UniProtKB/TrEMBL annotation:
<feature type="transmembrane region" description="Helical">
    <location>
        <begin position="513"/>
        <end position="534"/>
    </location>
</feature>
<dbReference type="Pfam" id="PF03030">
    <property type="entry name" value="H_PPase"/>
</dbReference>
<feature type="transmembrane region" description="Helical">
    <location>
        <begin position="546"/>
        <end position="565"/>
    </location>
</feature>
<keyword id="KW-0813">Transport</keyword>
<protein>
    <recommendedName>
        <fullName>H(+)-exporting diphosphatase</fullName>
        <ecNumber>7.1.3.1</ecNumber>
    </recommendedName>
</protein>
<feature type="transmembrane region" description="Helical">
    <location>
        <begin position="101"/>
        <end position="124"/>
    </location>
</feature>
<feature type="transmembrane region" description="Helical">
    <location>
        <begin position="420"/>
        <end position="447"/>
    </location>
</feature>
<keyword id="KW-0460">Magnesium</keyword>
<feature type="transmembrane region" description="Helical">
    <location>
        <begin position="333"/>
        <end position="352"/>
    </location>
</feature>
<dbReference type="InterPro" id="IPR004131">
    <property type="entry name" value="PPase-energised_H-pump"/>
</dbReference>
<keyword id="KW-1133">Transmembrane helix</keyword>
<feature type="transmembrane region" description="Helical">
    <location>
        <begin position="153"/>
        <end position="173"/>
    </location>
</feature>
<feature type="transmembrane region" description="Helical">
    <location>
        <begin position="7"/>
        <end position="26"/>
    </location>
</feature>
<keyword id="KW-0406">Ion transport</keyword>
<feature type="transmembrane region" description="Helical">
    <location>
        <begin position="69"/>
        <end position="89"/>
    </location>
</feature>
<keyword id="KW-0812">Transmembrane</keyword>
<keyword id="KW-1278">Translocase</keyword>
Amino acid sequence: MSLVDEIIVPCCAIGLLAAFAQFLIIRKISLTPNGQDLSKSLTSGDAPEKLVPEIYAKIMDGAIQFIKVEYAICCLFCVLFSGVIYGLVSWGTKSHTQGALTAGAFLTGAFTSMLCGFLGMMIATFSNARTTLACAHKGYTEGFNTAFRGGSVMGYALCSLGVFVLWVLLTFYRKVYPEADDWEILFDCAAGYGLGGSTVAMFGRVGGGIYTKAADVGADLVGKVVAGLDEDDPNNPATIADNVGDNVGDIAGMGADLFGSFAESTCAALVIAAAAVEGSNNTLSAAGWDAMLFPVAISAAGIVICILCGFFATNISPVKVEADIEKVLKIQMVLTAILMLPVIYYLAVLLLPEHFRLEGVRLTESGHQAKIHGSPFKAFICATMGCVGGLIIGLVTEYFTSHSFIPTRELASACKFGTAVNIIQGLALGYKSCIVPVFVLSSAIFVSFQLCDLYGIALAALGMLATLSCGLTIDGFGPISDNAGGIAEMALFNPEVRRRTDALDAAGNTTAAIGKGFAIGSAALVSLALYGAFVIRLRVKTGVNILEPTTFAFLIIGCMIPYWFAALTMKSVGKAAGEMVAEVQRQFSMKDSKGKTLLTGSTELKPDSKTCIQISTQASIREMVAPACLVILSPLAAGTFFGVQAVFGLLTGSLGSSVQLAISMSNSGGAWDNCKKFIKNGFSDDVELLGIGH
């Protein structure tokens, strides 16, 4: 094994062992505790404990039902699309070997992404009921630790599997192309791994997102707004579907999304690094395998750093009171980012040559492509810009979405003046929250590009994703806590238990927004890096000129694509939520033999959650087709009918407009959610707001 292999493999093994160890700790919490003294718990008798396993089983069954249907469609699409990849690559390169290897990498990335999403969803569902019981019997400390450990299992396992499978793939492909002169072809073939991960991520985010929002909106509209029920009231048949949605959308979907970003950024860095430089032997390929796999080593080392920092949250400085929750999560973000910096520098000095040259996309004054001179220190600065930039984006997201800070509290105060004022201020909050992240991303892009051209931007993306295990941990923490609160409500636990889970959930809403911020920021950098790799592989000698009529025209079209995509998904949510509303109203209107309904205390009628789950499942699978086709087919259509300049414009426009749209939507939603909890749970001293909450 080479030096870089000795770094990557042990780090992945440690990550998988840590994930399994955390799982064993969670498993110690039994859903049916026998002989346990519950006299000091917050439950009224043992009735809630008896309901928890039943509710847990319904959520688990619903999640598995959806994921089976979604992944069956993903498998069919990926197999068919791999055939298209094989044909196109074989035809373009005149090599069936390259076609087969690229298609194989695509399928490997797709199935790895599905495996990671499935494992994340299963452990999140496994942890939710146990978090409820931990909050009921042990308080904030065990409740927080259970939810945090559930998220960490997903984070450690996903990152370890993603890095290890990529390492195995590259090692196998190296057997086919052992010579350094052929590594450019090798990494071109391996780039299919990133495409496979991103393809599944698209299905996971779109399908899972439609599912969870349709169930959420449907349950809230009829249950809370019309019938006046509490959130997650057991009489509302849509509450189980709502809790299932948290797992399939915010866990499996987000896990696949961030896996796709990691895979794409790594593959982009490898493709750019392997690009041959005319007239120079001082390239990364010439420096050897260790230098080429420097990007993979960053991700592997990040797993171990995140594991070490995880002990701080659960053992060294655990949560003891409600106020500690957000503080501990914030320390996790800051600590992992700080500790990653010296590790990245050490890896750069250890693996990279003192000086190396890269092929750039910038043009010299004479009109030729510039040759970029790189060094370990320059590579370290590029990765640092991404790592620190991700931290800043996370902290800014927390500021705008947490009810501990002014923006969300101002949004809550706006409720005193009506719904319209609240909506206006919520939209303004989202737009304002874009300012700092955009400047941070722009700064990272400028500095990285100046130092190492497109390779620098790919390293910046990897630097932002270096703490991915931590990001996934705190991102998974939110949906687990949200489910725990729902189970507490449905199992009729004492209101204090729900208060505890809501405190975790409020922090979880913020961490979910932070996770989306990381995903958006890294996706922006990854997209630019892939765009650059695309330009380099085409050997475009004149650069990309946006004043070219075709390019500029499609730039405008590209700016519109994210809005088109958002319109399709939002309309799909509306249609699916409408079906859910109709079903819940039908069940509420049914009467038993005594003329009573679910809302008037019928003992004969039971909420039919299975029908609601089927509605969300069928609607999300049906409605995700159009947005998916838009994303996949638009660049293919532009390139086929209008040429490569049209693709340049389309990609540039889409990248430019999608960042702001995504950040504003994510932060507005997170702030509104925490605004609701701020009012409902009486965190405010404002008497008028307390009146609204009750």
